[in-house]
TrEMBL record:
<dbReference type="Pfam" id="PF00528">
    <property type="entry name" value="BPD_transp_1"/>
</dbReference>
<keyword id="KW-0472">Membrane</keyword>
<keyword id="KW-0813">Transport</keyword>
<keyword id="KW-1133">Transmembrane helix</keyword>
<feature type="transmembrane region" description="Helical">
    <location>
        <begin position="270"/>
        <end position="292"/>
    </location>
</feature>
<feature type="transmembrane region" description="Helical">
    <location>
        <begin position="116"/>
        <end position="134"/>
    </location>
</feature>
<protein>
    <submittedName>
        <fullName>Sugar ABC transporter permease</fullName>
    </submittedName>
</protein>
<feature type="transmembrane region" description="Helical">
    <location>
        <begin position="20"/>
        <end position="46"/>
    </location>
</feature>
<feature type="transmembrane region" description="Helical">
    <location>
        <begin position="165"/>
        <end position="186"/>
    </location>
</feature>
<feature type="transmembrane region" description="Helical">
    <location>
        <begin position="81"/>
        <end position="104"/>
    </location>
</feature>
<keyword id="KW-1003">Cell membrane</keyword>
<keyword id="KW-0812">Transmembrane</keyword>
<dbReference type="GO" id="GO:0055085">
    <property type="term" value="P:transmembrane transport"/>
</dbReference>
<feature type="domain" description="ABC transmembrane type-1">
    <location>
        <begin position="79"/>
        <end position="291"/>
    </location>
</feature>
<dbReference type="InterPro" id="IPR035906">
    <property type="entry name" value="MetI-like_sf"/>
</dbReference>
<comment type="similarity">
    <text>Belongs to the binding-protein-dependent transport system permease family.</text>
</comment>
<feature type="transmembrane region" description="Helical">
    <location>
        <begin position="218"/>
        <end position="244"/>
    </location>
</feature>
Amino acid sequence: MEKVSSLRTKRRRRSGSSWIGYLFIGPWLICFLAFTAIPFVASFFLSFTEYNMLSAPKFIGLDNYIEMFTNDNLFSTSMGVTFQFVFVSIPLRLIFALLVAMILNRKSKAVPFYRVVYYLPSILGGSVAVSVMWKYCFSKTGVVNTFLNALGIPSDISWISNKDTALWCIILLFIWQFGSPMLIFLSGLKQIPQSYYEAAVVDGAGPVKKFFKITLPLLSPIIFFNLVMQMIGGFMVFSQAMIITDGGPMNRTLVYALYLYRQSFKYYKMGYGCAMAWILLVIIGFFTALVFKSSSAWVFYENELFEGKKKKKRRKEK
């Protein structure tokens, strides 16, 4: 009887502790269900319907997807603009972030101050106020034209209204927000042992060789992480294009997320917008899987890198 009673008390204690755990994760679980899981399933269902948010959704099967790929010219336009934005801005942003991280990866009392200064654009860059400021900077009477005129270069064009330069204005704003990948690169650089560089100097390696033989291979896992995260963010760019150019001129800055927003909340075609959202999810998933698949060829970890070098030396000795 005593053993049975002790087992019951243990079970009660376990059940009590498990309820405490559920109580702690309860707020997160409720938010996950309310704002992620249920909308995720609902959007998938609505993508097969005609729904204007004012009446009950009407099931139409694959009509939204067929319309998207056959009759909607702006769909292909927005897709092309988004691909151009991603494939240009992401490499430039990562290169610039790595360059600044390498500059800041040195011992100096002013380095913490510069880290904060360079990270500020990432905090402020996505805000409405900065996008409005950027819009006025590249306008006909903005700071850019004033600076060029001061240098003796006559310029009176509106950079955001020119079809050849409007998208580049948004790309520059996106690159300017390099603080987050820069800090991740900086933390990765701090993890590379200084002894590797000292050994390379003894072997007669210069700065370029040290970068390509030590820094870049050991930093490849960080590059991989930053590439995936920045690529996902690039495909979902929205606020900058909406505030600065609103998709113009001549739809040259009509990014995919902005066109999705128009279909859903301007034209009240919520079913069509949900279908567009799922196409975007598939595209992001495809390119993310492609990066993961290719990572085995260019991502190196410290143990793998030096084991490979040892194997090469053994082959040469043989």
